[in-house]
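Hi R.,

Here are the chain sequences for the assembly we discussed:
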Amino acid sequence: MFRDSGRPATPVRKPQQDRSRATRERLISATIDVLATEGWSASTVSVVAERAGVSRGAAQHHFPTRESLITATLEQTFDELTGRASVMYETLPEGPGRVEAAVTRAVDIYTGTQFKAALQVWSAAASDPGLRDLIRPLERKFARAAHRMTVQAIAGDTDDPGVHRLVQATLDMARGLGLADTLSDDSARRKQVVATWSEVLAAALN
Amino acid sequence: MFRDSGRPATPVRKPQQDRSRATRERLISATIDVLATEGWSASTVSVVAERAGVSRGAAQHHFPTRESLITATLEQTFDELTGRASVMYETLPEGPGRVEAAVTRAVDIYTGTQFKAALQVWSAAASDPGLRDLIRPLERKFARAAHRMTVQAIAGDTDDPGVHRLVQATLDMARGLGLADTLSDDSARRKQVVATWSEVLAAALN
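And here is the predicted structure of the full complex:
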């Protein structure tokens, strides 16, 4: 009956494509989880497959090597963070609280689970030139997007090199706060640091 | 003849103590080297012993476990960095360049080989509660010392909470700059960020 409804034939294959995409998503999400909670050495295709509830064969069909799994995970994570950040920045309040809201959101990116996962890859890449070559372009693309959006959020369209550098310093501080949060919950201290930084930044921008 | 010279007996044992201390130093220095260049997983007592040119037995006499080797290395590293920083701060220029010089020295600490080595331990500790418990007190002690010395360097004896928080933010930025330097040489960009932040910091302190 459905076949006679005049719909094109291709959508019939869709459920399989959806399943394949869902498997891929589950594997990537499990990779972030394993990286953030068990660290780099535990993050192999077979451990991730088990965590995702996916057979090892199916996992290897999507990601034949650990490198392909890690690269795809970082790629998607950075895209998601960039997408989420651009929506967040669109909803920032106008007025005096805007700079602090923008700094808070930048810091949120660097203190989340996805950053903790990325940190494990980063740290492994420090002693692995092959991995470093794979992740450096992803990291650069993400850093540029974060910088562009934060400049836009706090100062609009501007080429002012002073503003661009202040935003770089802000993102470096956010990265340092992310690192400080890996060994223990640093949220109370972080809140004060963000408030202080935002005040100084707002004054410098005026 | 020496025994009859009237000297006490203990100094005769000194060369052996010196040798033992030198072996310990060589092992700690090799640990920093292996951590920074080959990463956490490579940093075992036997790999470090080989790098140091020390027999495995001698290495295990000093450090029976990997944890004891890593803890001793961080302890000594943080003590050395604190000692070196306190001397550096004593030689800071007076006048308008003082804040930038202090920020530069703080950033130097977080971009050196010792920080890169510590970062590997940090990253491993994120998924290892036992290691985390061992290194957290060392890290806290170091962070407090770095904070105290930087406050002293840029503002002298002061309890001003605003100054204390500005210095915290500065050290968070320094930590973020350290992280940014692990995948590639970030020194050119870092120099600009340090100059920009130092200017803002100096203005905020006045």
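Chain B touches chain A through 48 residues (CB under 8 Å). Chain B is about 75% helix and 0% strand.

Let me know if anything looks off.

Best,
T.
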